[in-house]
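#lab-general

N.A. 3:47 PM
ok so I finally got the sequence cleaned up, no stray characters, all 175 residues accounted for. can someone with queue access submit it? mine expired

B.Y. 3:52 PM
send it over

N.A. 3:53 PM
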Amino acid sequence: MSSGYFNNIKEATVSLFNGFAITLSNMFRKPVTLQYPDKTPRSVTDLMPERSRSWLKVEMPICTACLNCEKACPIDCIKITTEKDPSGRVMSGFDIDMAKCMYCGLCTEPCPTGAIHFIPEFERASFSLDQMISRFVPEGEKVVPYKVPKKDKDEEKNSAKEEAEDKAAEAEPDA
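B.Y. 4:20 PM
back already:
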């Protein structure tokens, strides 16, 4: 019975010294903690991966107001308002509620011009949820959507003919 008692004391002492050894070894190592944001080697946006999903931005000069991004958003955080104007269709609102956004990226995929995309900016903490709404069309203004230039029928025929000739040239074995 006493051998079990002394065996438990021995195991506890060995365990205690193992813990002290680990603590002592960590005490003399160089710390790996990064003192964000004060002492980073480069700016934090440069440290972000290329395909990071941080904050959405819309390039309004190339936005076609096709509403594909709004339809693709599973939680309805994108709201686009279009109106008829004497000059044609105009956007009177393009809002993204980043407080609702789950950063899935589904809105960026169907965009025909790539107008909506993620940027490496992520530091936008705020005290109010209203400040988390990005408004790309200022209130009271109207933006005319970008119109993708259409190809002429002759240009389409020529490009199709050139593609067919290129494929035929690739398919022919070298003599």
